[in-house]
Write a structure and sequence with these properties.
Number of strands: 7
Distance between the termini: 34 Å
Order of helices and strands: EHEHEHEHEHEHHHE
Largest sheet: 7 strands, parallel
Bound molecules: nicotinamide-adenine-dinucleotide
Structural class: alpha/beta
Radius of gyration: 18 Å
């Protein structure tokens, strides 16, 4: 489905990003992985994806809080693959704290990585996409791009902003064969959420098991975490030719949370 296509997936050394990278590679796309982590483990993942799916897989350690590194990453993908057809803005961090205690450096980091990075990467790839009259931009926001929860001022603000950016880009580039959509996952059991379980337990003063049942899955009508593979399948569809008319959408995959 995605043969001859190439993709940058930010924050793809772990969790949802790695699942999406795997899903796109499975469909035949060349992949530029990005994110932090242990160098040996990242190389193992890169080589494994490349061998398993018979596609080119490269890696950039660009820091998504650094616009210069984001631009260099886009350039690396162009050099390695000749073009960039698909961009998945997925890298994200979280911090949970009451608004009056919310550390300014955490606010700034969440804005930079969860929102501003998408602006810088989209800006870097759109000129070529316009020239080739094809592009798929997929932004990973959250159910928290559509609704709020306490103690997440920066995250909820950044994710709402990401949906706004996505819609704006979508209507701006629609006539050039480029689509731009946002995926809004409910809770997915990844390292980011594992860390949050502990932080939320502290913020709410309840046990980790109670956080899962009474905070995370309370509005998720299905009462199960969303699976990385389900999000990967949605991203692969959005990247395909079949999704040419789907643009400017914020698509929840949240077990019913935002409609509950
Ligand atoms: P994760 O912690 O497993 O993965 C985050 C990825 O981002 C990692 O690869 C990490 O190295 C990378 N990253 C972090 N800071 C970076 C930086 N400065 N530069 C480059 N890479 C950086 O998290 P996840 O749960 O897979 O989350 C992925 C995305 O999905 C995030 O945007 C998150 O907000 C969103 N999301 C997650 C959930 C969930 O329940 N897990 C729900 C909704 C939305």
């Amino acid at each position: 489905m995605l043969k001859q296509k190439s993709a940058i997936v930010t924050g793809s050394t772990s969790g949802i990003g790695l699942g999406i990278a795997r899903g796109l590679a499975e469909q035949g796309a060349d992949i530029l992985l990005n994110g932090f982590g242990n160098a040996d483990e990242i190389e193992f993942t890169r080589a494994e994806l490349q061998r398993q799916y018979g596609v080119k897989v490269r890696y950039s350690g660009a820091d998504m809080s650094r616009p210069d590194q984001i631009r260099a990453m886009a350039e690396l993908a162009r050099t390695e693959f000749g073009k960039v057809d698909i961009v998945v803005n997925n890298a994200g961090i979280q911090h949970v704290a009451p608004i009056e205690e919310f550390p300014e450096e955490k606010w700034n980091a969440i804005m930079a990585i969860n929102l501003f990075a998408a602006f810088h990467l989209i800006k870097a790839v759109v000129p070529d996409m316009k020239a080739r009259r094809f592009g798929r931009i997929i932004n990973v926001a959250s159910a928290h791009g559509l609704t709020a929860s306490p103690f997440k001022a920066a995250y909820v603000s950044a994710k709402h902003g990401l949906i706004g950016l996505s819609k704006t880009v979508a209507v701006e580039v629609a006539e050039f064969g480029i689509t731009c959509n946002t995926i809004c996952p409910g809770y997915v059991k990844t390292p980011l959420v594992d860390k949050q379980i502990a932080d939320q337990a502290k913020a709410h003063n309840i046990s980790p098991a109670d956080v899962v049942r009474d905070v995370m899955l309370v509005h998720q009508a299905r009462k199960e975490f969303v699976k990385v593979e389900e999000l990967a399948a949605l991203a692969a569809f959005l990247a395909s030719d079949a999704a040419a008319s789907m643009t400017a959408n914020a698509i929840p995959m949240d077990g019913g949370w935002t409609q509950h």
